[in-house]
Task: structure prediction
Amino acid sequence: MKPIWALAIAIMVSTTLVAVVGAQTQAGAQKTDTTPRGAEVVAHGTSAGAVACARCHGFDGLADGSGAFPILANQNADYLSKQLRDFTDGTRLNAIMTPIAKALKDEEIGAVAQYYATVHATTVPPPARSPDLVKRGETLATTGDTGRQVLPCTGCHGQKGVGEPPVTPYLAGQYGHYIVSQMVMFNRGYRKNALMYTEAHHLTEGDYEALGAYFEGLPRPSAE
Result:
């Protein structure tokens, strides 16, 4: 029998999925191929002032490898669109991304998201990490820590961190430094998500590093 928290997460995710799918169905089942426009915005930006996405995230969505910017390649398009809109309305606070997102038209947001969701990118080999640190991250990610009321990340982000589109992003293959930085953002309220805020407060920065090391070493989902 599943623990109560696991059932609660499953219900929450299922309810959100139903709502999103229903909204998409009402909007129309067919989607226009906007990838060419997305590639144009990614490479050159827009006349309204949005700089080229490739400057930070790379044309292939792999960024510069530092972890300062996330890998966007093959992340779910609906998830990416939502993040851009969160930057425009203040749900996510970022001095760089907020003005860029606000300079994009709604159709440009969709085009950029679709481009990065479908781009074919190479595999990024993870850096060497302490086996003990990776093991600690794996335990937190797959089991959690009941003593600290820490839920397993895989309950929402999927087994092996492959994500649960369109609600939650993949973490597998994401830069460890970026995962750490985003946990700090959730902790400080710069990213607004009630569940992640709680999880970030139950974890230490050492835990953030362990989770980053574990997820970075997993294979990233690729374009179909």
